[in-house]
Specification:
6-stranded parallel sheet, 8-stranded mixed sheet, 17 helices, Rossmann fold, binds adenosine-5'-diphosphate-glucose, 14 strands
Amino acid sequence: MRQSPLVVVANRLPIDDSMAPDGAFEWRRSPGGLVSALHPLLRHTPAAWVGWAGGTGPAPDLPDVDGVRMHSVPLTGDDLRDHYEGFANSTLWPLYHDSVEQPEHHRRWWEAYQRVNQRFAEAAAAAAEPGGLVWVQDYHLQLVPGLLRQLRPDLRIGFFLHVPFPPPELFMQLPRRAELLGGMLGADLIGFQRAQAAHNFAQLVAKVLGVPATDRSISVGDRVVRIGAFPIAVDTAEVAALAAEPEVAERASRLRRDLGDPDRVILSVDRMDYTKGIEQRLKAYRELLASGDVKVHDTVLIQVAVRSRDRVAQNQILRDRVEHQVGRINGEFGRVGEPAIHYLSQPVDRTELVALYRIADVMAVTPLRDGMNLVAKEYVAARVDDTGALLLSEFAGAAAELEQAYLVNPHDLEGLKQGLLAALRATPDDVATRMRAMREHLRHNDIRAWARSYLSALDVAGSLPGRLTTTG
Ligand code: ADQ
């Protein structure tokens, strides 16, 4: 097998399940923060990606995609059920998001988690060249750094967690907490979205493993594991350029016309997931319609909630509830040709998404808990004329950076309503001042800056070719 100096290991490969007519694979631009985040970096980098290609058959042999080698890891139906839907998405995901839904614990899931992590570690060990750098992503693969270090002690290993890392009182509930922490400590550098997460991790390591730890470094035997916050970002320039394209502008004006030229457009774009606060937001909106503070005639809400992890039972239940809620609100407050909420459960393509960002006077991003939330950052990047108000949950990682947003606590229904009204009624000057500051922040803190800061912290020996860290 050809080996690479930089290997990304993630649950999914960044490609579509289907091949283009000419036999080439294309980058998958499906919903999913990680793909969106790494796409601009790796396509110009001599790198490999280890991940699952979809399907439950043998792992397919894949062609390179934009110069990136694809190594697929096979998963069986049992692996999918017990590792992906089970331990990753029904134990860790809810627990790491403040237990907004009850995490489930099953020993069979843990066995699958170990088994699948071992398989990914072996695939990464085969894909990395001697002394290479391996960057393991996210909560599906927390044991991989430790397993990989046993197989390949010559590698520099990084781990980045895209989701929140919970406070000790929540993490302590995990029956296999020591093993999970130990797995992560196989890395040389552990990156989190927020400083608070690194702090939580250090506290837990000290408490559970009895290892001395600060918020910056942890000594494990003769190794030092560094930890820290590396808030993920978007390709600010790419989003801004797309937003400025005539085709997008045209699509935006058509959309606005199709909506009946309302005074105000409110937009939300989420994966259909119970952490995203969709029900709470719709409830707040319903109350604003009922009180007459918002009128269907001049204000429109567009909710894009693309189906995601459909086989996780709580997401199915959520979808039924959200669709019921939308139907009820439209039935109560809509008129013929004037629905209160425009609801889309399908993925929208990039151009359409940016056109939607362009017509949104208010972008409502109100998750109950979110590692970062790239939608909030994409919206800001797309507001090239400094208009538009961002309503943002305090519990999204993005709130630590986008301080000029209209910040709300999504658990507080009254606060949510007031926040939405404040954003709707804000003066153009106020909106512009806030937007300008946020755009300025994202101009300096884009996806390349994120990758560069993470990779240069990992690559202390400077063994990577310069172009890995400086171009994108
Ligand atoms: P996600 O929970 O998937 O990511 P988010 O950060 O918002 O959440 O990323 C979603 C991405 O998918 C965005 O780039 C967005 O444009 C796209 N998207 C969403 N809905 C879409 C739709 N209907 N059609 C097309 N595209 C859509 C996880 C964590 C986040 C963290 C990211 C990256 O949960 O907190 O920000 O990883 O680290």
